[in-house]
Amino acid sequence: MKYTLIYSDADGESHFEDVEIPLNEGGKIGRLSEHFPVTSLQFRENTPDYDWDFHNAPQKQYIVLLDGEIEITTSLGEKRIFKGGDILRVEDTEGKGHKTKNLIKSTRKSLFIKI
What we know:
Largest sheet: 6 strands, mixed
Helix content: under 10%
Low-confidence stretches: none
Number of domains: 1
Mean pLDDT: 97
């Protein structure tokens, strides 16, 4: 399993990094990761016209996209598309931030998991 990390470097530029989550055999219940400490969970809905210019993450958090499709652009212009089922970890709480735009014009649902 993997997630995409969005982080800022020392110059404040935002970047993507693919991170693999190791899974261990858990028997009949499937493969499991180690536990990750979290502090809160928040449910979110975005309007169909969601298109947010450069911004920083409000805190370090995982974002689990439940549906929809978004395009995220880093401060260096790199773009990636994410859809329902994808997991992001945003850590660019400082620096130049990133852009987020709905690609499907419908209400989008996600989970914010603060770390």
